[in-house]
Amino acid sequence: MPPVSHPFKKGALVILMNYNDHALPHVHVRYQGDVRNYRMEIATRQWMKSQRSLPPALSAMVQTWVEAHEEELLEQWRAAQAGKPVSIVG
User: Fold this and answer.
1) pLDDT tens column, 3-40
2) CA-CA distance, 38 to 90, in Å (whole number)?
3) Fewest C-beta atoms under 10 Å: which of 40, 48, 54, 85?
4) How many CB atoms lie under 10 A from the CB of residue 52?
5) Which of 47, 43, 40 is nearest to 15 (CA)?
6) What is the model's pLDDT at position 38?
7) Positive or negative CA dihedral for 63, 39, 52, 13?
């Protein structure tokens, strides 16, 4: 799963995008080594159902970043779905 963000907070938080992932367009957030529980839909910036949630300050930071880079992330999503390389956004 390649990263689409520079590491936040000295690498503690990284936003990733998976190739051939299920719809709706979303990003994964690696936090404390866990990438399966932190997923956000790009267009709505809603967290997808999970047993865990990020601390509120980190959650707000990710939402703000995704909102600021929505178009770029959707372009990366389309590239990933087509099997093309994704690149760092922002």
Assistant:
1) 888 877 767 899 999 888 888 999 999 998 898 899 99
2) 20
3) 85
4) 10
5) 40
6) 95
7) negative
The two tokens of residue 12 are 């503690």
Query: Which residues pair with residue 39 across a beta bridge?
Result: 28
- Token duo for residue 9: 């907070």
Side-by-side strand order, sheet with 39-41 = 13-16, 26-31, 39-41
Indicate the pairing of strand 26-31 with strand 39-41. Answer: antiparallel
- Cα dist from 85 to 2, 19, 21, 23, 27, whole Å: 9, 9, 14, 18, 15
Position 59, amino acid: S
Tell me: the pLDDT tens digits for 54-63? 999 999 999 9
Model pTM greater than 0.85? Answer: yes
